[in-house]
């Protein structure tokens, strides 16, 4: 495993800011709205990046499923997710007032993806729930992939097939003890129910598949620029959105193994790198701030910028005081 790849940390920061803008802004300009309005895709890129980094980190360790290694993996994941998550959850409960114990335990257990979306204390929690489920199965999934020598190309094709089929699956989740199966929304931004877990697994297939591609390396700087431009163009198409997480996986692989390029240099700049470090806190905190409906000034655009700035400051504090300091398990 290489040392930290700063450009990938920076990429995570840019994606967190994209999601933040997606939630705060609704532009009348058609071009801007096509880009900002597809900010939900940044969450899929999060999943791809997470799967890629976990694969390059653990592909040697999970060739054999030793209980100690699996337990250590879970402890590290809990340390990564829970401190900021749980504190934000308590804050939301205090702001919201009384909630049911069932809602509390569903959120505390990170199993929101199986239940009525009304159980979400924070709309972004759905992705933490689905990623936690992927963390739980990841050691076993990677072990089987390595043991049975499942090629990266097969995983990529499986991910694409799931992405293509996803908008046509009926929405499924538990509601008051019953299983609800509604007609599909035919939309890729599915932040609830079993389909949100399928969405996450598809992105994990991209990340794992690209990480395991044997000897995959395109020489020259042009390739990453071509993939980046193609991804931008696909934002203006409906069907093209299916492929953006896969293209992001190719970009991540090139940033990890490829030649130095201007995109990499940008992602490694100080402010973007700091943004990457606070990205997890920003992802959680920005919607808590948005949900309070603060009005600082009467100009909506300026007000949104001020709230985003406030979210960034809170996220920096959260990173310094919670993410870096609070660990539930000693590993």
What features would you describe in this structure?
- The protein is mostly helical and 331 residues long.
- The chain is 66% helix and 3% strand.
- The protein has helices at residues 6-24, 30-36, 41-58, 67-96, 101-108, 125-147, 152-165, 193-212, 222-234, 244-257, 262-267, 270-277, 279-291, 300-323, and strands at 171-175, 178-182.
- A hairpin with a 2-residue loop joins strand 1 and strand 2.
- It is globular, with a radius of gyration of 20 Å.
Helix-strand layout with pairing:
Elements lengths: L5 H19 L5 H7 L4 H18 L8 H30 L4 H8 L16 H23 L4 H14 L5 E5 L2 E5 L10 H20 L9 H13 L9 H14 L4 H6 L2 H8 L1 H13 L8 H24 L8
Antiparallel strand pairs: 1-2
Helix pairs in contact: 1-3, 1-12, 1-13, 3-6, 3-8, 3-10, 4-6, 4-13, 4-14, 6-8, 7-8, 8-10, 9-10, 13-14
